[in-house]
Predict the 3D structure of the following.
Amino acid sequence: MMLNFWNVSDYRDLLKSYYERRKEELSIYSYRMMGEKLGVDSSYLYRVLQKRQQLPSRSIPAARELLGLTGRAAEYFDLLVAAAKSKNSKESHELMEKALALRDVARKEITQSELRFFGEWWIPAVRAYLEISGGDANPKRIAEYIRPKITEAQATEALQLLKDLGLVKRLASGKLKIADAHLTVGGPEKIQAVRRYQQEILQLAAKAIDECPVDKRDISTLTMAVDAAAFDDIRDMLREMRRLIQKRVDESVAPDRIMELSMAFFPVTEIRK
């Protein structure tokens, strides 16, 4: 897609973007060629892409296939279609609300220089602490609050790093505010840094079994025998659960604790041929 799929609010923009991309790739690509895939003639397709017509219901499955949409993306597309076609403004609004609920949370991509953020497990924890402290960046109080305990010097170092990287910003009141709620990474060096960080978090999870009261945590395991299709489905379910959890976190009005969530789904046998 030339457009950011999840930022599109009219399904016809996706179809138009697809046409423009194909035209760049293949100069002879035409409305007629695309119309044949969708079961409409070239003049009708042109009016659809100009938002003067709606795509016929019979063409929607072909449109999903043309755009390569499955799962949540296909559901999002269907809701955009239904909202565009609805004659009732209230119904259209409700359909758009359902579509927006399927969107990913906004993320900031970590740059090469920002990899130091994942250098120690407590740096992200200090950053998250600013949300529950109302931006109070007192190193001594932070060191006393974080578990397992860290030193005041480590808290000071973490705060300085967060400011240097622009991951927090100072308000007029002197307090600190998180600049971007969710972070993501890409590239081999970044991924390796995150892997080391994830190893530290999993070690903390193991310690929590003995050190954290049962009513303050939820740790469970499940061993299962699955086929390839179930494996793919479960991975998709875990991704969707993570997305929903992130959206729920964004709705927290007055956070009062910092939690780590580690999801581990891995093989303990070789795959039988």
